[in-house]
From TrEMBL:
<comment type="function">
    <text>Isomerization of 3-trans,5-cis-dienoyl-CoA to 2-trans,4-trans-dienoyl-CoA.</text>
</comment>
<dbReference type="InterPro" id="IPR029045">
    <property type="entry name" value="ClpP/crotonase-like_dom_sf"/>
</dbReference>
<dbReference type="GO" id="GO:0006635">
    <property type="term" value="P:fatty acid beta-oxidation"/>
</dbReference>
<dbReference type="InterPro" id="IPR018376">
    <property type="entry name" value="Enoyl-CoA_hyd/isom_CS"/>
</dbReference>
<keyword id="KW-0443">Lipid metabolism</keyword>
<dbReference type="Pfam" id="PF00378">
    <property type="entry name" value="ECH_1"/>
</dbReference>
<keyword id="KW-0576">Peroxisome</keyword>
<protein>
    <recommendedName>
        <fullName>Delta(3,5)-Delta(2,4)-dienoyl-CoA isomerase, mitochondrial</fullName>
    </recommendedName>
</protein>
<dbReference type="InterPro" id="IPR014748">
    <property type="entry name" value="Enoyl-CoA_hydra_C"/>
</dbReference>
<dbReference type="InterPro" id="IPR001753">
    <property type="entry name" value="Enoyl-CoA_hydra/iso"/>
</dbReference>
<comment type="pathway">
    <text>Lipid metabolism; fatty acid beta-oxidation.</text>
</comment>
<dbReference type="GO" id="GO:0005739">
    <property type="term" value="C:mitochondrion"/>
</dbReference>
<keyword id="KW-0007">Acetylation</keyword>
<comment type="similarity">
    <text>Belongs to the enoyl-CoA hydratase/isomerase family.</text>
</comment>
<dbReference type="GO" id="GO:0005777">
    <property type="term" value="C:peroxisome"/>
</dbReference>
<keyword id="KW-0276">Fatty acid metabolism</keyword>
<comment type="subunit">
    <text>Homohexamer.</text>
</comment>
């Protein structure tokens, strides 16, 4: 769709108006074309609005200046709001290994909070991450999440001291029963990071210092990854005699897109430094230090949270579906998804904000 053209389902797009110099031949009849679930009152209001939009569009597109959307990653309004945020403990989130704060409206900060142990992943962590992100997934106030590590590094990976009995002394009377127990145990560990991927809210990883072993499993389940210049990444599992089993080997190849590099990292456990992580596509941006990194990650979360939650969460769900399916299957799924989601009031609010050159941050979208 060129520019910011409205979906063809709305009858015509911005580009069509520009091309023909006026209202399109067929009416903007989307909201009155028999879509179920839209009230008569809503239809009347929507039709009146779209007639007004059509008139505004015609005048705008024939005026000397063109309507455009900012391509800057974050608006000044959003950055100011993020900087003013006063973190407070998020209600309902009380954990041993995590600290969850509401840094500003619609944004949560989940912090690995065992700095004295280099944020090593103990039993409490593996359990609490699932509880935490299941709550976030159902939280209508939350629209974006930042996850980071307290102290000197993101995480040193699995806490071998705390987890030794589970891993090296599994329960069971014979091989079959021990294997069955380990199968269930590994399934639980996998869910610790899969729950991040399943959460419909975008999750941004802000990584500083070491991101080792299970840390790579964690960040590959996130949607966006930023890092500080001092960050490094290690697929460490071969150094402790096992193959990574909770997500890295499945997700990292799809993120990097370079099987040779993935194999090298996984076979050798060597460190990947920040610059290489950026060049390979593991992270999208590097920042000079942890403080600047966290500010940028929170500002990005604020920018995402300013958008329609229907649009953002639908986008995440369809991106993940399309990653694991063919183009044709992804398009079919998208079609089924949007035949209901396009009926949201958020479309009307977003288009109106664009027409009036308003920041989306000033628009109130209903909770989802």
């Amino acid at each position: 769709m060129a520019g910011i053209g409205v979906s063809p389902l709305f009858g015509c797009g911005f580009d069509a108006l520009a091309q023909h110099g006026g209202p399109c031949a067929r009416p903007l009849n989307f909201l009155s074309s028999g879509y179920s679930g839209v009230s008569v009152a809503m239809t009347a209001v929507a039709m009146a609005f779209f007639h007004r939009v059509r008139s505004l569009l015609t005048r705008r597109l024939t005026a000397p200046t063109n309507l455009s959307l900012s391509l800057h990653p974050m608006s000044s309004f959003t950055q100011e709001e993020a900087s003013k945020a006063a973190p407070s403990e998020a209600p309902g989130h009380n954990y041993e290994s995590l600290q969850v704060t509401a840094v500003q409206k619609h944004v949560l900060h989940v912090q690995l909070n065992r700095p004295e142990k280099r944020n090593a992943m103990n039993r409490a962590f593996w359990r609490e991450m699932v509880v935490c992100f299941n709550k976030i997934a159902q939280d209508p106030d939350c629209r974006a999440v930042v996850i980071s590590g307290a102290g000197k590094m993101f995480t040193s990976g699995i806490d071998l001291v705390d987890m030794a009995s589970d891993i090296f002394q599994p329960q069971g009377e014979d091989v079959a029963r021990i294997s069955w127990h380990l199968h269930n145990l590994i399934s639980k560990y996998q869910e610790t990071f899969s729950v991040i991927e399943k959460c419909p809210k975008p999750v941004i990883a802000a990584i500083h210092g070491g991101c080792i072993g299970g840390g790579v499993d964690l960040i590959t389940a996130c949607d966006i990854r930023y890092c500080a210049q001092d960050a490094f990444f290690q697929v460490k599992e071969v150094d402790i005699g096992l193959a990574a089993d909770v997500g890295t080997l499945q997700r990292l190849p799809k993120i990097i897109g370079n099987q040779s590099l993935v194999n090298e990292l996984a076979f050798t456990a060597r460190k990947m430094m920040a610059d290489e992580a950026l060049n390979s596509g593991l992270v999208s941006r590097i920042f000079p230090d942890q403080e600047v990194l966290l500010e940028a990650a929170l500002a990005l979360a604020a920018e995402i949270a300013s958008k329609s939650p229907v649009a953002v969460q639908g986008t995440k769900i369809n991106l993940l579906y399309s990653r694991d399916h063919s183009v044709a299957e992804g398009l079919n799924y998208m079609k089924s998804w949007n035949m209901s989601m396009l009926q949201t009031k958020d479309v009307i609010k977003s288009v109106q904000a664009a027409m009036e050159k308003k920041e989306l941050k000033t628009i109130t979208f209903s909770k989802l």
